[in-house]
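Go through this fold for my students:
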Amino acid sequence: QVQLVESGGGLVQAGGSLRLSCAASGLTFSRYAMGWFRQAPGKEREFVSAISYAGRSVSIEDSVKGRATISRDNAKKVGYLHMNNLEPDDTAVYYCAARLWEIARAPGLYDYWGQGTQVTVSA
């Protein structure tokens, strides 16, 4: 059974930083690209960042470019999203997702999803 478990969310003041983690089990993690998405209340789920299976390719949404860094540790089967200089508009539930091999920006192209972790940024 594939499981993706996010952690690291919480309440942070604007200008602060967070590191989200996504622990994977039940799949050969090194074969899967990992994506991070977020969904704010009343809005559609949107792409944040993705990293390919070996970490050689990365994609970052323009709204977080320069503030977000995605990485992975295939030995530990964990992916990370580090965000700094957080803004209130970053408030959302953040999800990690996995798909074979290469990155994609569309949520529908991912096969597995975590349950999400809440990030709240106060002004």
